[in-house]
């Protein structure tokens, strides 16, 4: 396969553009001027594609999301953005009426956020969800995934009473009536979610392919996805499902981020599990095994992120640790023995500080050679930011989180700490590797609202005027690089991915607008005209 894409504005590097891309097979062979390459490759066996002057950027690479769960969310009731508990109830009822067979065994969805409710901003409880149904189990997750609400049916299936022992690393809350309220936090959420029967393998296969189609339509060419350990599927089944799909469907590149229920499961993965097959069954550029994923804390919105000085609006609350320091060290040390990268969910400053210390203790010759990474890394003071950069610890950031978080972070953390948080620009200026992603389904996996948020520090409605702590705005080049070459760096692929250059993978996106000159307020509305993965046009409109 030989192709020449010509007559475009091709982003090569900061302030550096070319016009044409020549590729053979999966790789780019030359980038240059249209006149030169059209003349050089004027051959019958070279397919020619006129870019019609459109802007071309490297394929976008989401550094952290939950691909399978996003597929689930596309097939569940949409409760994202509801402005009241009643609206959530109504949406679920309508979904049940339209999809009775799908709801026979229960309803599970993610997306509500009490801070967006108008009027009463309380967390939904069993009495609310009983208004949807008392006959089937109903589990509705807060947008962060760290708080879950259920109806009474779920409580009955779990056999919970006020005297039941609490779950490890999480809890079910007790209502004023002395009965479980139907609200679960941290690890207890998983027990509630497990009540809902899983999708069949064929349903999951169809959802994954549908999600791949949607992702490439948004300009994604690679995803680094934490599905194993976070979906209802057990690890071996999830691994096999992806491998079978990739035997015939190579629309997008996928790198596993893997978490485990306990340490023994991790040990087995390394010795007799999927990790032992990595050289034989994961030797392509499309499907790869990636890092160990750990969770250190919860979320800011749920006040379960670990905070050093407690919450500004809840002084006695310091958040919830999802893993104790000594347990975390066991995981990180075993990962080191097996030359395995570790990435850790950290949102609060205490979680970030403790995780940095754990990483530092496992550095090789004082260096972060395994590229251990902080996922989210939201609440920081200047000292933490400098320490991250000094240690060369990578960050997988989600600027799109600011759309909601800018509404609450000053209340949760105080203005001083808020002013040094979500420090995308400071981290970059200090030399840290910052890769962008969406954490879908927490947010939609569309990368352009994410890029918009990084550049403007404004919510989707264009507020506040001037941006939220605008000193942390990045420019468009930095934002695109964070979604391409930096995302490639955190997966050890920077030598073949993330740039449009010779001998790199032929992954790139043709845009409907010039992202470099458009009004920054319009970046979020940009749409791909064409997405190319490995030289193949996998999306076109």
UniProtKB/TrEMBL annotation:
Residues 49-539 form the Amidohydrolase domain. The keyword Cytoplasm does not apply. PANTHER family: IMIDAZOLONEPROPIONASE, PROTEIN LONG AFTER FAR-RED 3. Gene3D superfamilies: 3.10.310.70, Metal-dependent hydrolases, Urease, subunit C, domain 1. Transmembrane segments: none annotated. It comes from the Bacteria. Keywords: Hydrolase. It comes from Peptoniphilus harei. CDD domains: YtcJ_like (cd01300). One of its GO terms (molecular function) is hydrolase activity, acting on carbon-nitrogen (but not peptide) bonds. Its EC number is 3.5.1.91. This is N-substituted formamide deformylase.
